[in-house]
C-alpha cells in the first residue's frame, strides 16, 4: 500500500507508476496551469495526467520544463500521461495524434498513453497503434480509459498486449466494484478520474464525520480511500495550498469499518458520461 507521495505500483510490464498524481482536466492553458504543474513537482508529485482533448498539453509541457529546472529532478523521474481523443481513433491517426501530443508537451516519450473512450468500431485500430508505439519503445506503458468489463474483454480478444491501466470515473458514489475486481484478476491497474466527484461529496455527513475523527479534510479521506482500495488517483487542483493538502494522505489510515462506511455510499452515480451510452 502507498505510504509516501512518491510510492509506486508496478504495472504488469514492470513499469513503476506513482500511486498519486495531478490531473489537469478542464484547466485552461496558461500561467495558472503552468504554475499548478510547477507547484505539484515542487511539492513532491511525480505524476501529471493530461489529454489531447483538454487542449492544455503545451502548458503542461511548459510546467514540466520549468518545474524540472527548479529541482534536481530529471525527465525520467516524472510519469507523464496523455490520451488519444475519439476523432483520432484509427491506426495511422492515433500514431499521428501521439506525435502531436509529444510535440505540444515538448517531450521525447510518454510514460503512459491511453485510449480516452471506447468508441465502438474504432478502439481496436487505435489499440494496434498503441501496441506499435509500445513495441517500438516510444511509450513506456499503454492503457485505456472509461472501458467497462465488456470493452476490455472485446479488446483483449485480438490484442497482442493487455492494457496496463484502465482510468475510469471512480469515487464513493461510483465505486465500480465489479470492474475493479475484473481489472485485478487481469492485472490491469485501475486509476480514478474525478475522485472527488467534482466537489459534490465534500459536505457529505458520513465523510465529514470520518474526516473530523482523523483531523483531515473530506477530500483527504476520499483520496485515502482510493489508495487503500489499490486505486491510483489524480485529483485536480490549480491552487498551491490545495495541491499540498491533497497529497497529505500518507500519514493516517482508514479502519476497515470506515472503508466499509464509504463503500456503502455507492449509488452507481456518474458525473461524467456513461461509457456504454455516450456521443462525442
Automatic annotation (TrEMBL):
Question: Which Pfam families does the protein's record reference?
Answer: Aldo_ket_red
Q: Which InterPro entries match?
A: AKR (IPR020471), AKR5G (IPR044500), Aldo/ket_reductase_CS (IPR018170), NAD(P)_OxRdtase_dom_sf (IPR036812), NADP_OxRdtase_dom (IPR023210)
**Top-level division of the source organism's lineage:** Bacteria
NADP-dependent oxidoreductase domain residues are: 31-266
This chain belongs to the protein called Aldo/keto reductase
Q: Which organism is it from?
A: Fictibacillus terranigra
Amino acid at each position: 500500500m502507498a505510504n509516501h507521495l512518491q510510492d509506486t505500483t508496478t504495472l504488469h510490464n514492470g513499469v513503476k507508476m506513482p500511486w498519486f498524481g495531478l490531473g489537469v482536466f478542464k484547466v485552461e492553458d496558461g500561467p495558472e496551469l503552468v504554475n499548478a504543474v510547477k507547484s505539484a513537482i515542487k511539492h513532491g508529485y511525480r505524476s501529471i495526467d493530461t489529454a489531447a482533448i483538454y487542449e492544455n498539453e503545451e502548458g503542461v509541457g511548459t510546467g514540466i520544463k520549468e518545474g524540472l529546472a527548479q529541482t534536481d529532478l530529471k525527465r525520467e523521474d516524472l510519469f507523464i500521461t496523455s490520451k488519444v481523443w475519439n476523432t483520432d481513433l484509427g491506426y495511422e491517426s492515433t500514431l499521428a495524434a501521439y506525435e502531436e501530443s509529444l510535440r505540444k508537451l515538448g517531450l521525447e516519450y510518454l510514460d503512459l498513453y491511453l485510449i480516452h473512450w471506447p468508441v465502438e468500431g474504432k478502439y481496436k485500430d487505435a489499440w494496434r497503434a498503441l501496441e506499435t508505439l509500445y513495441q517500438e519503445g516510444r511509450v513506456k506503458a499503454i492503457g485505456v480509459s472509461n472501458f467497462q468489463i465488456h470493452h476490455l474483454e472485446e479488446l483483449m480478444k485480438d490484442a497482442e498486449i493487455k492494457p496496463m491501466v484502465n482510468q475510469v470515473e471512480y469515487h464513493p458514489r461510483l465505486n465500480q466494484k465489479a470492474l475493479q475486481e475484473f481489472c485485478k484478476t487481469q492485472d490491469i491497474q485501475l486509476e480514478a478520474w474525478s475522485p472527488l466527484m467534482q466537489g459534490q461529496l465534500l459536505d457529505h455527513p458520513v465523510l465529514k464525520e470520518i474526516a473530523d475523527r482523523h483531523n483531515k479534510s473530506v477530500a483527504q479521506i476520499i483520496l485515502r480511500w482510493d489508495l487503500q482500495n489499490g486505486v491510483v488517483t489524480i485529483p485536480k487542483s490549480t491552487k498551491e495550498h490545495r495541491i499540498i493538502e491533497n497529497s497529505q494522505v500518507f500519514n493516517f489510515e482508514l479502519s476497515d469499518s470506515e472503508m466499509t462506511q464509504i463503500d456503502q455510499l455507492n449509488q452507481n452515480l456518474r458525473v461524467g458520461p456513461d461509457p456504454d451510452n455516450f456521443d462525442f
